[in-house]
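Hi Y.,

Following your request, here is the sequence exactly as I used it, all 311 residues.
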Amino acid sequence: MNIDDIQLNFNATSLTIMNILIGFIMFGVALDLKLADFKQSVKNPKPAIIGLCCQFVLLPAFTYLLVLIIQPRPSIALGLFLVAACPGGNLSNFLTYLAKGNTPLSISMSAISTVLAIFMTPFNTLLWGSLYGPTDSLLKSFTISPQDLLVTIFLMLGLPLAIGMYINHKYPEKAQQINKWAKKASIVFFLGFVIVSLAANFKYFIEFIGMVAIIVFIHNLLAIVIGYTTSSLLRLPIADRRAISIEVGIQNSGLGLVLIFNFFDGLGGMAIVAAWWAIWHIISGLTIATYWSKRPPHKETVQESARSVKT
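Below is the corresponding structure, written out as tokens. Let me know if you'd prefer a different format.
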């Protein structure tokens, strides 16, 4: 069977539930955010700017080069472009904390990248997809409204972010009460939804996972290396390097899946890529975070990071 001919068991009700879950997860993240997180990036913008450039410029560009080299089928290539265009994933803050990275930097990058993703995700997906001939032809077979794409991303990311931050600013005690259960509950529900959806489509997953597993492994490794290498070359402290590499390596592939079913009719190759990304980046992220957790940055590196925050 052709991977693009499969019809995943994912109906309108499932899509609505997933939209709500993505928004609820973003709401939970926003309950932890304060204006001070953004002010810190304004005071010391270099690490955040480097991280965001890795996220929205270097990763999509290197994804394009990867596609040129391996030349996967068009739907898989477009799936890679879409995942690369998504903002950082919701687990990145926790993984950065576990890895003894710069958690405040991770939080501010997540918030800023979420806001930028309202514009950058549709822009990068359509830009890089149109530059590669096979995916350009595939894009033309769909009727995609950039405005509708932008509105969908805003409703799933921007609106919950704004509401969560407003509640945290106006009613901080209430926000902490809600946050005690909201974030954990949203992640549990989302993982449960992923498991149920995977079980409903298990035969397709088993049949085609071999086609995308190595590609996703390389793509995810490329994202992590881009983040760490770029921040190392620009002489950021080790804690910042860890935060940026995790932020770039953990993509919001759940958002990618929602967009695939909303705008690309659940195209098989794209959906399998995003679904496996959603699973694999948790495995790779936990692996690298656990490794780094046992190797804390040297004291002088931590002091250097503190000095860079003050300047």
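The radius of gyration is 19 Å.

Thanks again,
Q.
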